[in-house]
Automatic annotation (TrEMBL):
Residues 23-34 have a biased composition (Low complexity). It comes from Luteolibacter soli. Gene3D superfamilies: P-loop containing nucleotide triphosphate hydrolases. Signal peptide: none annotated. PANTHER family: ABC TRANSPORTER I FAMILY MEMBER 17 (PTHR43423). The lineage of its organism: Bacteria, Pseudomonadati, Verrucomicrobiota, Verrucomicrobiia, Verrucomicrobiales. CDD domains: ABC_PstB_phosphate_transporter. It comes from the Bacteria. The keyword ATP-binding applies. Residues 1-34 are annotated as: Disordered. Residues 39-281 form the ABC transporter domain. One of its GO terms (molecular function) is ATP binding. This is Phosphate ABC transporter ATP-binding protein PstB.
Length: 286
């Protein structure tokens, strides 16, 4: 069964398949064009039971960019984010009722897509940092170990690489066996980002990743987000307008389940097309 439904795959050559079957694209296949978006949302409606919370949303998330979702509480930002790794599958009655979401060239609703594999490709960082009550090392090694990596040297390597990418290595390298929950809040959130990166995703979803952090820890995580775009495509939900302007390349503004406007972050914040966007970013509601 083909992984590809509507566009050529845009994946790292060594990325594991999202299907539970063999990869559809042979290793020798030509590389896909760089301009294929990492995520394509095409006319998506979404409902919790009878309640429709997303209406005809269409947007592309370009590869290796940071895209921010903004909008007043309850407008559907988190719901859309959670569609990208099918986390909403876990909510009874929750479903996409129209449209499609294409990731790396595959329609993620396709029966051949394994949600567990999908979540390896599309990692998630939550609002409240949630390390396991185990050592710093074990938190990062957990994912690769679950995927079958048993060699100590390989695990050591992935732990160091992930902690370095999360800009945490220098702060924890001498205490990797300490319990993770003893770190500061900002360090715990960066540890959770390292844990996400340890299974080598291509896309990282962040749901208000700094809302539980103080300004200094927030600034560390924002610096990290900006540095990560070199390796990952990132979608971030934020209520913090300054944060959206600092970290994102593009911003989508949502209101009552509709995407009102999507453009470069500079355009959205300096010269939005829609009055409702202007009213929101200037604090007139929300
Ligand atoms: N599990 C659920 N069951 C039923 N309705 C839900 C569920 N989760 C969210 N909703 C509803 O869907 C709508 C969109 O919620 P969502 O969390 O996506 O909005 P949001 O824009 O992320 O809000 P916030 O900024 O407050 O996090 C809201 O009306 C919310 O009450």
């Amino acid at each position: 069964m083909s992984l590809v439904t509507e566009a050529p795959p845009r994946r790292r050559p060594n990325a594991p398949p999202m299907t539970s079957e063999q990869p559809a694209t042979p290793a020798s296949a030509p590389k896909s064009p760089a301009d294929v978006p990492a995520i394509q949302v095409q006319g998506v409606d979404f409902c919790y039971g009878d309640k429709q919370v997303l209406k005809n949303v269409t947007l592309d998330v370009p590869t290796n960019e940071v895209v921010a979702f903004i909008g007043p509480s309850g407008c559907g930002k988190t719901t859309l984010l959670r569609c990208f790794n099918r986390m909403n599958d876990l909510v009874p009655g929750a479903r996409v009722t129209k449209g499609s979401i294409i990731i790396e060239g595959a329609n993620i609703a396709d029966r051949s897509i394994d949600p567990v594999q999908l979540r390896r490709h599309v990692g998630m960082v939550f609002q409240k940092y949630n390390p396991f009550p185990r050592s710093i090392y074990e938190n990062v090694a957990y994912g690769p170990r679950t995927l079958g990596e048993r060699k100590k040297a390989a695990l050591d390597e992935v732990v160091e690489k992930s902690l370095r990418r999360a800009a945490l290595w220098d702060e924890v390298k001498d205490r990797l066996d300490d319990i993770a929950t003893g770190l500061s809040g900002g360090q715990q959130q960066r540890l959770c980002i390292a844990r996400t990166m340890a299974v080598d995703p291509e896309i990282i979803l962040m749901d208000e990743p700094c809302s539980a952090l103080d300004p200094i820890a927030t600034s560390h995580v924002e610096d990290l987000i900006m540095s990560l775009r070199e390796h990952y495509t990132i979608v971030i939900v934020t209520h913090n307008m300054q944060q959206a302007t600092r970290v994102s390349d593009r911003t989508a503004f949502f209101y009552l389940g509709e995407m009102v406007e999507y453009d470069t972050t500079r355009k959205i914040f300096e010269n939005p097309t829609h009055k409702r966007t202007l009213d929101y970013i200037s604090g007139r509601f929300g």
